[in-house]
Every structure is written in structure tokens, then in C-alpha cells.
Write a structure and sequence with these properties.
- The structure is a single chain.
- The chain is an all-beta fold.
- It is 0% helix and 19% strand.
- The chain has 2 domains: 95 residues, E3 ubiquitin-protein ligase SopA (Pectate Lyase C-like, 3 Solenoid); 63 residues, no CATH class.
- The protein is elongated.
Length: 192
């Protein structure tokens, strides 16, 4: 199969569970309402693309490149971002459901998560410095040896982060969610 460059195209309501996506490099393309669940997306390059209202749950993204890619209102359960191509990785998520996904050892600096569900997401050893996590649910998310320096958690909630095993210098937090930094001590904290 020949590797092709696909530019400036719109893909609407394509069911990639029934037909395989063409391997290649997608630049400035928009995917709207497409179903990629359990699909083979390995080693495809997405550059300045947008995914709107798509289902990418459990898609195989081994070696896949995401450069300046935006996901909006997408269902992305169990995605292994730790297997994607980290070169030039820049992602923005808005109103996405990323439960049970993995960002293990992924460099996500300056990425944005806005109004997302990040239930039980693995951020172990990830670099999240300067990241913005705005109004996101982080219940059960794992932060171990994670770089969160200058990260903005001001409006994030349901997180549990151990300051002793994560880098937090310059990170922003707000009440009452900041109590998630003390969970390991099992303290009873009253907010007045």
C-alpha cells in the first residue's frame, strides 16, 4: 500500500470499523462523527487535524503522530498514547472522555485538557509541565513520578496527587480540590 499525503479534506460520519483508513499523512483534515473504535491507526501522521464528535475508543495508535491535533467531544476510552510517536506531540482535548487511557512517560508539555473526563487515566512518569487541565474530572487518575511543574489544576477536581513522589513546583491549585494533595494522609479536612 502506497503512503500518501492527504491535505485539506473533510471526512464526515465514516465508519472506520468497517473500512480501513488509508495509511499516510493527514494535514489540515477534519474528521466529524467518525467511528475509529478498535481501528488500526498505527503509523499514521495527523498534522493540524481536528476530530469532532468521533469515537476513537481502543484504537491502535502505535507509532501514530499527533502534531497540533485537536479533539472535541470525542470518546477516547482506553487509548494508549504511550505507544504513539512522541516526536512533535501537541494535543488539545475539549469535552472529551478519555477514561482508562494511558499517558505513561508521555511528554505533554503545554497541552490542554478542557472540560474532559479523565477517570483512571495513567499519567505515571509523564511530563505535564505547564499543562492546563481546566474543569476536568480526574477521579482515580494515577500520578506517580509525574512532572507537574507549572501545571494549572485550578479548576480540576477529584484528583489525588502525592506531593512527595511528584514534581509540583509552581503548579496552581484551588480550594476545595487542593485537599487531593493530602489524600494519602487520610485527614479529615473541613472547608469553611
Amino acid at each position: 500500500m502506497q503512503y500518501q499525503v492527504i491535505e485539506d479534506q473533510e471526512f464526515n460520519k465514516v465508519d472506520y470499523t468497517k473500512i480501513a483508513i488509508q495509511k499516510g499523512e493527514y494535514e489540515l483534515c477534519t474528521f466529524t462523527g467518525c467511528d475509529f473504535s478498535n481501528s488500526e491507526l498505527s503509523k499514521i501522521k495527523f498534522i493540524e487535524c481536528e476530530f469532532v464528535g468521533c469515537n476513537l475508543s481502543s484504537a491502535n495508535i502505535f507509532g501514530t503522530s499527533f502534531q497540533e491535533v485537536k479533539f472535541e467531544e470525542c470518546k477516547m476510552l482506553g487509548i494508549r498514547f504511550d505507544l504513539s510517536d512522541g516526536f512533535g506531540l501537541a494535543i488539545e482535548f475539549t469535552k472529551c472522555q478519555l477514561d482508562h487511557s494511558s499517558f505513561y512517560q508521555v511528554k505533554l508539555t503545554n497541552s490542554i485538557f478542557l472540560d474532559c473526563k479523565l477517570i483512571e487515566v495513567d499519567f505515571t512518569e509523564a511530563n505535564l509541565s505547564s499543562i492546563k487541565i481546566d474543569n476536568c474530572d480526574l477521579a482515580g487518575a494515577v500520578f506517580e513520578r509525574t512532572n507537574l511543574e507549572k501545571a494549572n489544576f485550578s479548576t480540576a477536581f477529584n484528583y489525588s496527587i502525592d506531593p512527595e513522589i511528584n514534581k509540583l513546583k509552581g503548579a496552581s491549585f484551588s480550594m476545595p480540590a487542593i485537599t487531593g494533595l493530602l489524600d494519602k494522609y487520610q485527614l479529615k479536612i473541613g472547608i469553611q
